[in-house]
Design brief:
The structure holds 2 protein chains of 2 kinds.
Chain A: H1 2-52, H2 61-68, H3 70-103, H4 106-117, H5 124-135, H6 140-147, H7 161-185, H8 189-197, H9 202-230, H10 234-239, H11 247-256, H12 261-295
Chain B: E1 16-20, H1 27-35, E2 46-47, E3 50-51, E4 62-65, H2 77-87, H3 92-105, H4 121-133, E5 139-143, H5 151-168, E6 171-176, H6 179-185, E7 188-193, E8 196-201, H7 203-208, H8 213-218, E9 223-233, E10 236-241, E11 246-251, E12 260-265, E13 281-292, E14 296-302, E15 308-314, E16 327-332, E17 337-341
Parallel strand pairs in B: 1-6, 1-7, 4-5, 5-6, 11-17
Antiparallel strand pairs in B: 2-3, 7-8, 9-10, 9-12, 10-11, 12-17, 13-14, 13-16, 14-15
Classes of the chains: A mainly alpha, B alpha/beta.
């Protein structure tokens, strides 16, 4: 019977060693990704950080310049406002679409996913130009509106904030839909049935059961769309008017035209910090939300 | 595709009524029609004399416990149970009192502030039950509610459900494929097969007097013997099995001489060492297999041309165990031999 006692004693250190080996093994598997990330992401980022505070000597003049020039502050404000509007519109359009996607039969769901992600197979520049054709003064949209006598003169849909919002919403909608749908697919449909059997009207069942359960999807999708919006460049550059400058366009201008790389770096760092701040706020809100749900 | 063809059932108020059948028999479809999640293409459903087939589920006032429990994961136990009251605008002290009573009924006092993920399967089940009863529904519908629980807990919950049902006097319509559950809990059972009701009756009626080989096989266990009717006097018939063995039995329907029949005998009704008596059917065989099951022993007995039958013998102190190859004489009461017209295949 002594063997029975001896086995666990001997096995324990062996098991721990095996576990350690496995951990190192997993680390080794991560190594290529970590190296690539360090070389292609961390190193250039450090370069940007360095350049933003250093030209011939260490200095904070580039940051000072940003915060002392009202035009730049306006651009930052516009960037955030555009991102917020785009996020809100994506949510309103994307929520019902994601619901249909999540509740569809497997074959239909696959088809819908393909339709949703199909635009990604085409270059964003091509798609943006396509929108410019559609939305132009003599584009299809304005022609229909005129033919139906809904408007008398062509609407200005391009080269202004509405053009930027339409274009960005179109590009970012799939991110919202796919994030929402993945959360909605995890919601047990019998929960809504249960709510009905307990006396809840469709509106009550949605507000008390489905909406709170899909909230993580709303938060996740909104965060993704908002953060992607902040760095948008091509769409606002092509579909916006001269005043519709977003921060990424400003950075590009400094790099390409004025060759002021240090100033561009400072702007890039500000964008990064603001994005991270947005994420931190979001994280706080979501955490608080969970606490609230648990103890209300 | 037709899931349920011609189902007509009357359920007495305050009774425990079970729809029993294999998967695909239409029992869940029938329940879902009563609940309002499916709508019958024809026919009507009455609750307390009022037609409800046209109403959506939320207007039917029927409590329902789902197979997956469907406890709201984002709400606490209290909020889950308060949900039906909340949507009915029952507020304040009255809501708190009724939730308290419902939780007491299912013995979950003190769990009010917990979230479903902090509960075991059995506890979630109780939350679902309290939630379905808190608004005092006319009928409680349950769709295989104990299917996900382990054996011990299931037996315990069966007793709990009966206690709660007696306490609140609610009519229960219960769906299960587990014949043991149906027998132990129900006042009335409807056995369903292929979208039709095969038989309705008390558990004892179904077990002792099944109307078809399907019921005899689905509830409990039966040995089937094919043969023809040699003579018939009322319900009592004499059957000659295809092997030549003759015995007496009771016809499930009226049978006539020369008719092909299937006879069913339950394993526990076959006795191995009975004193000779002219009333009993008898035959000789050889033990082919012995399966010890603790409380009882199951013998597979070869009866020559009849084939192999199963005999279940309680393991009492006195009973002498047989071994493989032992000769054995079987005896059984003609009253325990159900004779059905052979099913046309």
């Amino acid at each position: 019977m002594s063997e029975v006692g001896a086995v666990p004693l001997a096995a324990m250190p062996a098991a721990a060693a095996a576990e350690r080996r496995e951990q190192w093994g997993q680390l080794a598997l991560l190594l290529p990704a970590l190296l690539a990330l360090a070389a292609l992401f961390v190193y250039p980022l450090l370069g940007i950080l360095f350049r933003s505070v250093h030209k011939t000597d260490y200095t904070l003049e580039f940051y000072r310049h940003v915060f002392r020039t009202p035009v730049y502050l306006t651009v930052i404000w516009l960037t955030f406002r555009t991102a917020a509007v785009v996020t809100a519109i994506c949510l309103v359009i994307g929520y019902p679409l994601a619901y249909v996607l999540a509740r569809a039969r497997p074959r239909m769901a696959r088809l819908l996913v393909i339709v949703v992600v199909l635009p990604f197979f085409t270059s964003i520049i091509v798609r943006t130009y396509a929108w410019m054709v559609l939305l132009g003064r003599n584009g299809i949209v304005n022609q229909y509106l005129m033919d139906l006598h809904l408007v008398r003169a062509p609407l200005a849909l391009l080269y202004n904030p509405s053009g930027v919002v339409i274009g960005m919403t179109y590009v970012l909608l799939p991110f919202m839909v796919l994030t929402l749908a993945s959360v909605m697919r995890g919601i047990d449909p019998s929960l809504v049935s249960a709510a009905h059997s307990l006396g809840a009207s469709p509106a009550q069942a949605f507000r008390r059961v489905y909406l709170p359960l899909s909230a993580p999807g709303i938060a996740g999708g909104a965060l993704l769309v908002f953060i992607l919006s902040l760095g948008f460049f091509i769409t606002p550059a092509l579909m916006g008017g001269p005043p519709d400058v977003m921060i990424a366009m400003l950075i590009e201008r400094e790099v390409e035209l004025t060759l002021n790389w240090s100033f561009a770096s400072a702007l890039a760092v500000i964008l990064l910090v603001l994005t991270l701040a947005g994420y931190a706020v979001y994280h706080r809100v979501v955490r608080l939300g969970q606490l609230f749900e648990g103890h209300s | 595709m037709v899931a349920v063809r011609d189902v007509s059932l009357t359920i007495a108020p305050g009774s425990f009524f079970t729809l029993l059948g294999p998967s695909g028999s239409g029992k869940t479809t029938t329940l879902m029609m009563v609940a309002g999640f499916l709508h019958p293409t024809r026919g009507e459903i009455f609750v307390d004399g009022a037609a409800v087939a046209g109403l959506p589920p939320q207007k039917r006032d029927l409590g329902m416990v789902f197979q997956s429990y469907a406890v709201f994961p984002h709400l606490t136990v209290f909020e889950n149970v308060a949900f039906p009251l909340e949507v009915r605008k029952v507020g304040g002290a009255s809501r708190r009192q009724r939730v308290g009573e419902a939780l007491e009924l299912v013995r979950l006092q003190g769990y009010e502030r917990r979230l479903p993920r902090q509960l075991s399967g059995g506890e979630q089940q109780r939350v679902a039950l309290a939630r379905a009863l808190v608004f005092r529904p006319r009928v409680l519908l349950m769709d295989e509610p104990l299917g996900a629980l382990d054996r011990k807990l299931r037996a315990h919950m069966q007793l709990e459900l009966k206690r709660i049902q007696r306490h609140v006097h609610v009519t229960v319509i219960y769906v299960t494929h587990d014949q043991e559950e149906a027998l132990t809990m129900s006042d009335q059972v409807a056995v369903m097969r292929g979208g039709l009701v095969e038989q309705v009756g008390t558990p004892a009626e179904l077990y002792e007097a099944p109307v078809s080989p399907f019921v005899a096989d689905f509830l409990g266990e039966s040995n089937f013997v094919e043969g023809v009717v040699v003579s018939a006097e009322g319900a009592r018939v004499r059957v000659r099995a295809d092997s030549g063995l003759e015995f007496h039995g009771i016809g499930a329907t009226s049978l006539s001489e020369g008719q092909r029949v299937t006879s069913a005998i339950r394993p526990e009704k076959l006795a191995t060492d009975e004193a000779p008596s002219p009333e009993l059917n008898r035959c000789k065989g050889t033990v082919a297999e012995v399966v010890y099951a603790g409380d009882a022993t199951r013998y597979r007995v070869a009866l020559g041309a009849v084939g192999i039958v199963t005999v279940k013998v309680q393991n009492r102190m006195a009973s002498r165990p047989y071994a493989c190859g032992d000769p054995v004489e079987l005896a059984w009461d003609p009253g325990h031999t159900r004779v059905f017209p052979a099913e046309v295949r």
